[in-house]
Specification:
- InterPro entries: Acyl_CoA_acyltransferase, GNAT_dom.
- By secondary structure, the chain is α+β, with helices and mostly antiparallel strands.
- About 25% of the residues lie in helices and about 40% in strands.
- The chain has one domain: Gcn5-related N-acetyltransferase (GNAT) (Aminopeptidase, 3-Layer(aba) Sandwich), CATH 3.40.630.30.
- The model has no long low-confidence stretch (mean pLDDT about 95).
- It binds coenzyme A.
- The site of coenzyme A has 19 residues, from α1, β4, α2, β7 and α3.
Length: about 160
């Protein structure tokens, strides 16, 4: 399937579509309140969104921020549109995120440029998505914890692999 990738920042028009996508495909099914769309991470100086587009429509997205003062980036709100799941789109999003951080070592959007070599990419993975991250060589770190009422594990990927 032909998927186009685009890094955007929170100020770009396409971000509104990302918010709608996250709501329909991640937050609403989990019963997470609409206010959660106002994710404070989106307002961080070094936050970015990787958007997967098919025929100019958002079919997946993943947001990421640099953890200030560290060699780490955390991604959040990873989601693929329901009708597109199980077709390798999620895998392509994660691989593109890893490729950007490893090879480009910079993220450039309309309004922002982030340039730094990072060593670790991680997320708080929902228990039922852990197998997905493990397939992509992420490793569980630490014990299970509850966030937003759901079981999670911290999942880490070594960018020097
Ligand atoms: C989890 C999610 C992002 C996966 O995206 P996807 O496009 O369906 O996944 P892919 O088709 O790229 O799957 C890649 C591989 O992971 C496996 N996989 C996918 N979801 C899995 C899961 N929940 N558990 C175990 N393995 C899984 C696939 O079988 C595939 O394996 P293969 O490479 O051996 O064929 C998607 O199901 C989704 O958006 N879920 C709802 C939101 C969500 O839970 N997000 C995670 C937040 S932490």
């Amino acid at each position: 399937m032909e998927i186009e990738f685009k890094w955007i920042d929170t100020e770009e028009a396409l971000f509104e579509q990302v918010q709608t996508h996250r709501w329909i495909n991640l937050l609403q099914p989990l019963g997470i309140s609409f206010d959660y769309l106002e994710n404070p991470n989106d307002q961080r100086p070094n936050s970015f969104h990787l958007v997967a587009l098919k025929d100019d429509k958002v079919v997946g997205s993943c947001s990421l921020f640099h953890v200030e003062g560290s060699d780490r980036a955390k991604f959040y709100q990873m989601s693929v549109k329901k009708e597109f799941r199980g077709k390798g789109v999620g895998k392509k999003i994660i691989l593109e995120m890893i490729r950007t951080l490893k090879e480009d070592q910079k993220i450039k959007t309309k309004n922002k440029l982030f340039e730094k070599k990072l060593n670790v990419l991680y997320c708080h993975g929902l228990q039922f998505a852990i197998g997905f991250y493990e397939r992509l060589n992420f490793k569980k770190v630490g014990e299970m914890f509850v966030e937003e009422g759901y079981e999670h594990y911290k999942m880490e990927y070594d960018l020097n692999l």
